[in-house]
User: Fold this.
Amino acid sequence: MAETAGSLRYRDQVVIVTGGASGIGLGVLQVFVHNGSKVVFCDIDEKAGRDVETNLNVKGPGECKFISCDISKEDQARNVIETTVQTYGKLDCLVNNAGFHPPHRPIDDFSTDDFRALNEINVLGYFTTCKYALPHLRKTQGNIINNCSLVAYIGQSGAVTYAATKGAIVSMTKALAIDEAKYRVRVNSFAPGNIWTPLWERCARESSNYDKTIKTGKDAQLLGRFGTIEECGLVCLFLAADATFCTGININVSGGAELDYGFKN
Ligand code: NAD
Assistant:
């Protein structure tokens, strides 16, 4: 984190990160706090959220506050937005990240209830925060950053429901970017490849061969490794602080996993 500490590239900006107690959301939170932002993060895991709040606030120069929330519940999601604005008086950036990846399996083994439940988190959870954040973001000409997934663009075996929810986020990002441009609100997304997080490790443990799954996960990236949560955070910082003429775009944070179609020299 040394290269971002002290640069304060998003100083005093008020940022919400959903699912910030673990994994990619935690990386985003860390980078913004190191750059002077006031970050409100929510998570369904209250204990992990409280731990992060205590530890990160010591390290500043920004600050973070935790709100316990299940993002799939509209009243709770709305409360995160309203509490943030009551606390800090404004909102500059919303990072939608809280999501879930069910174990890989063929479509035959997913029920419609499984798919409905996943949509509640991965799609409705993003829709609701956008809906309640936008009236505030229009006042600051702020921005939204949606975490989708490379899977939304290139698909993945055993992930039909997950891919569908992430594809919805790519489309939602573009449609919102069009509607909100007149308010000078930017809406962008980033698409992680394989990023080493507790979610990824859980997926590997649920697979038939842990070591093989880890190796496959690394090899899928042209750069030959997992991405880090900080690397995702730095892309979000770029979108929020620097990419001021970009809206409706997506940045792959994937080590080139989507390249090199089928021919090995
Ligand atoms: P993670 O499990 O490490 O972290 C996700 C966090 O979201 C957890 O703290 C969890 O408690 C929280 N969360 C889950 N459901 C929630 C809910 N209903 N309300 C509030 N908080 C909730 O996972 P991660 O790997 O960091 O994934 C974060 C996002 O990145 C997800 O949307 C995931 O689909 C996406 N993603 C991850 C990868 C990867 O390789 N890790 C790749 C592509 C996309």
Observations:
- Confidence is low (pLDDT under 50) at residues 1-5.
- The beta strands are 14-18, 38-43, 63-68, 93-96, 143-147, 186-192, 250-253.
- The two ends are 37 Å apart (CA to CA).
- DSSP finds nine helices and seven strands in the chain.
